[in-house]
Write a structure and sequence with these properties.
- It comes from Terrybacteria sp. (strain RIFCSPHIGHO2_01_FULL_58_15).
- Keywords: Acyltransferase, Transferase.
- Its EC number is 2.3.1.39.
- It catalyses: holo-[ACP] + malonyl-CoA = malonyl-[ACP] + CoA.
- By secondary structure, the protein is an alpha/beta fold.
- The protein folds into 2 domains: 183 residues, Malonyl-Coenzyme A Acyl Carrier Protein, domain 2, CATH 3.40.366; 61 residues, 2-Layer Sandwich (Alpha-Beta Plaits), CATH 3.30.70.250.
- The chain is built from 14 helices and 7 strands.
- The strands form 2 sheets. It has a 5-stranded mixed beta sheet. A two-stranded parallel ribbon has the order 6-7.
- It starts with a helix and ends in a 5-residue tail after the last helix.
- 43% of the residues are buried.
Length: 291
């Protein structure tokens, strides 16, 4: 992940080198060569994904200088990349913060194992009722007909069975032990808040959509609150995209190793113009797009 970017763009190479220096270990080698079990450990995965997305951004800025987005938004961890893109966070500070986020999330997963599951093809109100009845929470409002729930393992199992019984077309348990964006994260929220409080931040240079409220984050105090509350709150991705579209923006560029968000955006707004870039070929192809 990212090795082709480093070979093609000095800006990406410098960024991966900065990541290694900031973290004190060779994150770049984990990204390029694994082993996969180490890369997917949330302590490493979170810095790796932020590094990759910002490397893509730096490469894009190198070939299209002066291009500025109307909005930036990120899904869950992606909110940190969005904050770097909006000049709220320095890359190194974001990296240290998501490393800590990964650490506290792993701690919760070890002490209070939970899980998440994607519920496909179910009415939102019905699923919200299932969550109340079983003690789990909505973690991500991803797209119409695609919602992720999170909670303690036994409660999640009950919710899955009840969702199936009440009409879910498909249920996909996801192999993680951390119930992100749920109340299970509450025990580490205060500890993480201390890390957020001491991290330097600036007012955003472009509007950043909040995962929690789906509205622009207007100042540093709001951003600090957001990053803590986000741990225990659902990601309002549908409302975020709807807000952007309501302001007249219907073209989106996803930066990252996969096209998950691009597919979600198309489900939210079928006429949206969406491209996903994560490697040299897709970055070059973007130059031929008509926007």
């Amino acid at each position: 992940m990212g090795q082709d970017l480093v070979a093609a763009y000095p800006e990406a190479q410098a960024l991966f080198e900065q990541a290694d220096k900031t973290l004190g270990y060779p994150l770049s080698q984990l990204c390029f060569a694994g082993p996969e079990h180490a890369l997917t450990d949330t302590i490493n995965a979170q810095p790796a994904l932020v590094t990759h997305s910002i490397a893509v951004l730096r490469a894009l800025q190198a070939i299209q200088p002066g291009v500025s987005p109307a909005f930036v938004a990120g899904h869950s961890l992606g909110e940190y990349s969005a904050l770097v893109a909006a000049d709220v966070l320095e890359f190194a500070d974001a990296l240290k913060l998501v490393r800590e986020r990964g650490r506290v999330m792993k701690e919760v997963g070890e002490k209070s194992p939970g899980g998440i599951a994607a519920i496909i093809g179910m009415d939102t109100a019905t699923l919200e009722t299932v969550c109340r009845e079983t003690g789990v929470q909505i973690a991500n409002y991803n797209a119409p007909g695609q919602i992720v729930i999170a909670g303690e393992k036994d409660a999640l199992a009950r919710a899955i069975e009840l969702a199936k019984a009440r009409g879910a077309r498909h249920v996909l348990p996801i192999a993680v032990s951390v119930a992100a964006h749920s109340r299970l994260m509450a025990p580490v929220a205060r500890e993480f808040a201390a890390s957020v409080a001491k991290t330097p931040m600036r007012a955003p240079q472009v509007p950043v959509l909040s995962n929690v409220t789906a509205l622009p984050l207007v100042d540093v105090d709001a951003i600090r609150r957001e990053l803590v509350v986000q741990l225990t709150s659902p990601v309002q991705w549908i409302r975020s995209i709807e807000h952007i579209i309501a302001q007249g923006t219907t073209s989106f560029v996803e930066l990252g190793p996969k096209d998950v968000l691009a597919r979600l955006i198309r489900r939210i707004h079928k006429d949206a113009h969406v491209v996903s870039i994560g490697d040299v070929a897709s970055i070059k192809a973007l130059g031929s797009e008509q926007w």
